[in-house]
Amino acid sequence: MTRPVRHSVVAPSIQEIVSFLESLCPSLDPSAALLRSISNLQVGTPADLVDQIYVVPQPSDSLLATLPSDKRVLLISATPLFETPPIVFNWRTPANRLLLKLLERRIALYVLPLSYAAASEGYDVCLAEAVGFPESQPLCRAGTEQQCKLVVFVPPQAVCKVHQAASEAGAGTIGEYTYCSFQLLGKGTFLPSERANPAIGQRGNLEEVEEVRLEMVVPQHALFAVVEAVKAVHPYEEVAYDVYPLYHCGVPCGRGRKVHLEKPVAFDELLSTLEHALDLGTAYRLRYTPPDPQIANAEVRHVAIGVGTGVHSDLLGAAREQEVEVYIAGGTSPSDWIGVPPPLLVDIGFLPAVAPGLKRLTERLRQVFGGRGVTIEYAP
Predict the structure, then answer these.
(1) Is residue 350 within 8 Å of 308, Cβ to Cβ?
(2) Which of 51, 131, 145, 216 sits CB 3.0–4.6 Å from 72 for a disulfide?
(3) Do 246 and 334 fall within a single domain?
């Protein structure tokens, strides 16, 4: 019997990272106006390898000035460099000058899709948690997050380690129960080639070994991380696993979040909470309507949150139908403020609104790719 072969530490490609990012985003109704946004690799080649990842609210000249020149860098941005591909490249415009610098230094740029706001750990959920609303529901439901069944075949002595790794990465949760799995003992066969390095058996010999069929439920957003976690601890050189979509279950998702406060709070207290929780300071000032001093002591019980520009007319309508009293917007356009009826509209600004979600994304990237020699940073 030869010794188990550990997986080699190879820097990930841009395509690997993009696949992971897209796995986090729920598959929502493509006809929904809330989801129209640009989302792609705006600069870079998918096959290129990456040494450093920077998660940023938006690309900027000041950010590029701090980046190392001897590393293969990928920027993951909440804001696109271009809303539509330019036809004429005028280097005097800020966006085109920035594009030129990215091209000259071979820095890749990927823009997160707007559907990331609706992800289970996306902009909306993370903002709600950051301002003190850990229990919230979708404000405007637009679909269901796909659930999957992961089946992996494991030698009996490694089942506990693989089961724990998969569970810690997000598999095996059913309602209020975690670490859920089904395990069935059976026999597996394989014949290693002369180039193989088998953990069990010999090259050129047909082997028959005991294996456990380990089954676990995995939400779509955790699938990539779970598979990587399983591969990291599995003793086999080639891990045998299958992924099956589950059509009978799913977690509702959509844009915006709503919360019912058990204990009502004064409107001015809610504003203070937002400023403190997001550390707005003097850089960002809250805007809200209507500017009537009589609302300062009004009590608030129903609150909604939505992140992104160009989506608030739809979300405000949903909030109004659900009797929301205060709608907290993460970035607004001028049209959002025209003739706004209740609920009260409070704008905290786009950059502070996406910060909690980008920080959480940075943590997820470190969990998945941190062991492969990649430096991953959040750069506000």
Answers:
(1) yes
(2) 51
(3) no
